[in-house]
Write a structure and sequence with these properties.
Chain lengths: 649, 514
């Protein structure tokens, strides 16, 4: 069962990738869809077995050993599948969303030339993601981590004739690599500290190392804080947290199903999973948790501000993803790991729904992504329209939609932490909730309502998507509607099913405390959400002239938000340009200094000497040999001198 | 065990091939055709023989296996001694594996002086295998230096426009280093009274002498590696060398430096190694960052990969001189992995060079449209070079960095930036060559991989994946010898009090001439 869940997508990838020509597009689509759907079924069965099975009903977590991978001294890494409660939740989320995206892609990519390759990459991604969530050691996790990175690189740059797609894919890979730099160092540090990279052994030793210190870059630090912050750096890259987020919006260059699967529902949540997975270590590193909370809160806020000003429909959703990831991170930071995973799960449904819905719109609008050129199309694509509403309401946190339950518990937990950073995250989160609802409404009204701003040809061509695209949307919509209510108790209620897969110190149990917060804390997010929606309606439905006036009124702020807080030009000036410049300088110095002093200089000198000594015409060999002989004789005599007199002492 | 002298056979069988090629008579075409075949069959047979050796190799043993000893210069106590352990085993295989591939890669692209070319390659194979098998310093020196001659000829005769300059640069650089090594070998002989490598390891010299000898050896091996700042011969040599020359250069020759560090520097001069290790690790870090940045701005495909080789070799020295199990094993693995990956990358460059006769990156672009198979192979190798987990590149890089982290966290942090920079230049290279619109008509008209090209690229790709997913086959055979090496190293650090006695004893026995 575990093998099917993880390796069926790999099989699908191999067949579609290697034999894509032989089996044709239809064959490739069938093989990959079959692979991922069987993985999804296997995952759901595992979910039942792992969370409800076992003798005492506490579940039946298990680890399947596959084979040895690397053994070097004490450093032992195995290929193994660790299927516990946390892993199995992730497996279900990944495979279900991935199945929807696979099927959807059959319709969405129907005009593309390279269908087989696309489907193969999607399956490859799913496989890597499954390896990530089921790893029982840090290095296999790193394998999955980089694997999803490569799949993401391949898929963002899928339309590889476009320069912008190529730039975006390289940017995504490199920014992620910066995060991986931290992750790798974190693994080294964990190995140095504990002498193992096996999760079980790490967790067993974590409590004992709570007061240990270690030397890092010349200073003595609290050991677990160093390890956890380095690991968190990896999470920041993958999950597009403030500072390492610049790749995510650009990643929208990829085909829309890719954005839904990788850049909304699954890969970007890997960082959240990482921290939750390592909760037994992070719990003993309070400073690391504090940093996570602050970063998460700021990300939620900053991303929301940018999201309000963008015009590309996919970019709006991308910034919204980043903002929601911020929520998940500050939930992790206040030790509400289960709340973070809960939000991760509901978010996967409604965000994938939103992206695929946006894809449906883009598909209908002849590949137009600019919301300024949309409008007035809701009557023509009513199903997509209704589905987008469901997704947006869930995102805005309107009662009884999935997002309502998960966002509330996250914010309540932040408040219940009663620390300065918990409070800060809470208020930033409340502000972001308002903005989230606002830009969701803005997106809906700009896209579907108002005057039709597209040209006539596009408008005539608008059509509802085929069932192969709509059915997956409906499955996701069902999740966006019901997942919050249905799973509330088992994820964050009084009797959660996590057992030992998530570890929280009794003093840090904010999820439990979240059930006892004051009334206003419980209701504030909803009020903000409703307010945001109403504001959105006022701005973009009733008084369409208002946004322009507001922009004029708050010019500097708008410039800041619209230009994404100037992260890209800043990084360009700070890192990319200097790197290239240094490269050129070093290359020149190779020629002029190293060679000039070294071989060329010696050659010139010896030529001059050779010229003085003789007039042999083709004196090359002679010159070199001459220098060498002189050197040799000199050195040998000097060494013998040294030896005979030196050794005799 | 094997009851015939397999190592000598492996080493000298290529010379039999040379003999056969020399007696071929007839038209130029016929000579060329037969020379190719003889070279291929002979190197293929040597490869099969080396596989047999691998099968017979006892993975549990840390000692030298298949050892042979014959009297050579009996009067000077210099013997012909061969033998391999876990450290040298896979380097021998690397040499025997890459030689037939090189001959295949030169099948069509070398059109002038084919006979001489094949002879040179077979001689080169002899020297390469011999280097890794020799257990006597004099023998080692002969092979180690001998390699330079065919390499010099390959670049100088079949090279590109600036072949003479490059060939001499290679020669000058490496010989200068080697001369110092020769001096050191003489000094060792004088001090300990033997040229037997195992004996030399067991009888370390005193600390002060270690320092000087270490530096002398270092000069030679650092140039071969090549380490920053004595790396500048490599880009030139690569650029001018024919494809197969680059393959051997990157695949095997660069590994001789690392092998030397492991065989000589570490076990024979443990105290000096410990003393100089921080400096060498810093040099490695500089190499990694410096050459990665330089690679980022290259316009020449071969130069880019050459600079990337220097960076990858930086990881090797970093790992070796961390003197940790992970570091040293990682260093060895990184050398093997780089031997395969860079060889394959140079072959990839050769594929397009044969079609368009330029190495300029901007002359290509959009190859994915007309060469999809090539694009796939190149992609995989590019990712392997970047160190993607699941490919061999990852294992070596990760282990060396892990070793470095245990030795010095600051160095490790700087070195790890290499994983970002390494990804940068490779991805940019790939994008410019393979992705994008087809801008150049002639590049867009190029045909996809031929069967011949397939035949030598696919095995390399499969090995890269195999070593990435299940490196334990190699690691299991390497680690006993590495443990032993590190044991000797540690012992050498602790027993320095006894060294004086050893020397005194040697003097008493009259092995040292005053």
């Amino acid at each position: 069962m575990e093998i099917i869940a993880v390796f069926a997508p790999l099989l699908g990838f191999l067949i579609a990738f290697l034999f894509g020509k032989q089996i044709g597009d239809k064959g490739a689509q069938f093989v990959t869809c079959a692979g991922i759907i069987s993985a999804a079924i296997a995952s759901c069965m595992l979910y039942v077995a792992v969370t409800m099975g076992g003798h005492d009903g506490h579940g039946d977590a298990r680890t399947v050993f596959l084979m040895n991978w690397i053994t070097s001294g004490d450093f032992i890494v195995n290929w193994a599948l660790r299927v516990d409660q946390l892993a199995v939740v992730m497996m279900c989320v990944v495979t279900i969303v991935s199945s929807c995206v696979h099927v959807y892609s059959v319709g969405y990519m129907s005009h593309d030339k390279c269908k087989a390759r696309f489907m193969a990459y999607l399956s490859l991604f799913s496989f890597a993601m499954m390896m990530l969530v089921t790893s029982d050691n840090l290095v296999q996790l790193f394998f999955g981590w980089e694997g999803v990175g490569v799949a993401s690189y391949l898929l963002i740059g899928f339309w590889n004739h476009k320069d912008s797609a190529n730039s975006a894919s390289i940017k995504a890979f490199l920014v992620n690599r910066v995060g991986d730099f931290g992750l790798a160092l974190g693994i080294f540090a964990a190995f140095l500290l504990f002498g193992t990279v096996q999760l079980d052994e790490l967790f067993a030793q974590a409590a004992g190392a709570a007061n240990q210190t270690m030397e890092f870059v010349g200073f003595e630090f609290h050991a677990l804080t160093v390890v956890c912050l380095l690991l968190f750096m990896g999470a920041m890259g993958k999950s597009a947290q403030l500072g390492l987020h610049t790749w995510l919006p650009d990643a929208m260059e990829g085909p829309t199903p890719v954005s839904a699967l990788i850049h909304a529902a699954t890969m970007v949540t890997a960082g959240v999973f990482l921290v939750a997975r390592l909760s037994p270590m992070f719990e003993f590193a309070p400073i690391a948790l504090m940093v996570i909370t602050v970063v998460g809160g700021l990300t939620a806020f900053v991303a929301a501000t940018i999201g309000m000003t963008q015009f590309d429909i996919k970019r709006v959703i991308a910034y919204s993803t980043m903002s929601q990831l911020g929520y998940m991170f500050f939930a992790l930071g206040v030790s509400a790991y289960s709340a973070a995973i809960f939000h991760l799960m509901t978010h996967a449904f409604f965000k994938a729904l939103l992206f695929l819905g946006a894809g449906s719109v883009i598909h209908a609008m002849s590949d137009e992504q600019d919301m300024r050129k949309m409008g007035g199309i809701w009557k023509k694509i009513p199903t997509t329209y209704a589905l987008m509403w469901i997704g947006s309401l869930a995102l805005a946190g309107v009662p009884f939609f999935a997002g309502y339950y998960s966002k509330d518990i996250v914010l309540e937990a932040a408040w219940a932490d009663h620390s300065w950073f918990g409070n800060m995250a809470f208020w930033l989160g409340i502000a972001a909730a308002l903005m989230t609802a606002f830009y969701s409404a803005r997106l809906l009204f700009m896209t579907f309502h108002g005057k039709a701003r597209a040209n006539k040809k596009v408008m005539d061509h608008i059509h509802e998507s085929p069932p192969v695209m709509l059915v997956p949307l409906m499955i996701l919509a069902a999740g966006a509607l019901g997942a919050g209510y249905y799973f509330y108790d088992t994820f964050v209620g009084h009797h959660p099913h996590w057992d030992k897969s998530i570890f929280v110190l009794a003093a840090n149990d904010t999820v439990e405390a979240a059930h006892h917060v004051p009334y206003w804390v419980k209701k504030l997010p909803v009020v903000m959400g409703m307010l945001g929606l109403i504001l959105g309606a006022v701005f973009y439905l009733k008084f369409v002239g208002l946004p322009a006036k507001f922009v004029a009124l708050f010019k500097p702020l708008h410039v800041l938000f619209f230009n994404k807080w100037f992260f890209d030009p800043l990084y360009n000036a700070l890192f990319i340009k200097p790197s290239l410049m240094l490269g050129k300088v070093f290359f020149k110095s190779d020629k002029n200094i190293v060679d000039g002093v070294g071989p060329d200089g010696v050659a010139k000198t010896s030529m001059r000497m050779g010229g003085l000594l003789s007039h042999l015409q083709s004196g090359y060999v002679f010159h070199y040999a001459f220098v060498m002989m002189v050197g040799l004789i000199g050195l040998v005599s000097w060494f013998f001198f040294k030896m005979t007199f030196g050794a005799g002492e | 065990m094997i009851d015939f002298p397999i190592l000598s056979l492996l080493t000298f069988l290529p010379l039999v091939g040379v003999f056969f090629i020399l007696i071929i008579r007839g038209d130029e075409d016929i000579v060329a055709r037969n020379a190719r075949r003889v070279a291929l069959y002979m190197s293929g047979f040597v490869f099969l023989l080396s596989i047999y050796m691998l099968v017979q190799f006892d993975p549990a043993s840390a000692d030298f296996q298949f050892t042979e000893t014959r009297e050579w210069f009996a009067a000077f106590n210099i013997n012909y001694r061969m033998g391999i352990d876990g450290i040298s085993l896979f380097f021998v295989l690397l040499a025997t594996f890459l030689t037939p591939i090189c001959i295949l890669a030169s099948w069509k692209s070398i059109k002038t002086r084919v006979k001489e070319y094949m002879i040179t390659f077979l001689i080169l194979e002899t020297f390469m295998i011999g280097t890794f098998c020799a257990l006597d310093t004099v023998l080692f020196y002969v092979f180690f230096e001998g390699v330079l001659i065919p390499m010099f000829i390959i670049i100088g005769v079949w090279g590109g426009a600036r072949k003479i300059y490059s060939a001499f640069k290679l020669f000058l650089y490496t010989l200068l280093g080697s001369v110092l090594m020769l001096v050191a070998l003489l000094a060792l002989y004088v001090q300990v009274g033997t040229t037997d490598i195992s004996m030399l390891i067991e009888n370390p010299v005193v600390r002060d002498v270690q320092m000087w000898l270490f530096l002398a050896f270092f000069a030679s091996f650092a140039v071969k590696m090549p380490m920053w700042p004595v790396h500048t011969w490599l880009p030139d040599a690569h650029v001018e060398a024919p494809t197969a020359g680059s393959v051997i250069l990157a695949g095997v020759l660069l590994k001789m430096g690392g092998y030397g560090f492991l065989r000589f520097s570490m076990p024979m001069f443990p105290e000096a190694t410990e003393y100089f290790a921080p400096m060498i690790m810093w040099l490695s870090v500089i190499a990694i960052i410096y050459t990665s940045l330089v690679a980022l701005v290259q316009e020449d495909m071969k130069k880019l990969i050459a600079y990337s080789s220097v960076a990858h070799m930086g990881f090797v020295t970093l790992g070796i001189f961390s003197a940790t199990t992970q570091g040293v094993e990682g260093g060895i693995f990184q050398m093997l992995s780089h031997g395969i990956i860079s060889a394959a990358l140079f072959l990839c460059v050769g594929v397009v060079y044969d079609r368009l006769h330029t190495r300029e990156i901007s002359r290509y672009g959009g190859l994915v449209n007309n060469m999809p198979k090539y694009a796939t192979v190149f992609m995989l190798l590019m990712l392997a070079s970047v160190g993607l987990p699941g490919t061999s590149g990852f294992v070596g890089e990760f282990l060396t960095l892990m070793g470095a982290f245990q030795a010095n966290t600051t160095i490790a942090v700087f070195a790890t930036t290499g994983v970002v920079l390494g990804a940068a230049y490779m991805l940019v290279l790939y994008r410019r060559v393979v992705f994008g619109e087809s801008k150049n008509k002639d590049a867009a008209a190029m045909k996809d991989l031929t069967k011949l090209e397939y035949s030598y690229l696919v095995p390399l790709v499969l090995i890269v994946l195999w070593l990435g997913i299940a490196p334990s086959y190699v690691m299991d055979r390497v680690s006993p010898s590495v443990e032993k090496l590190l044991g000797q190293y540690e012992a050498g650090l602790t027993v320095n009090d006894n060294i004086g006695q050893n020397i005194a004893q040697n003097i008493n026995e009259g092995t040292i001439n005053e």
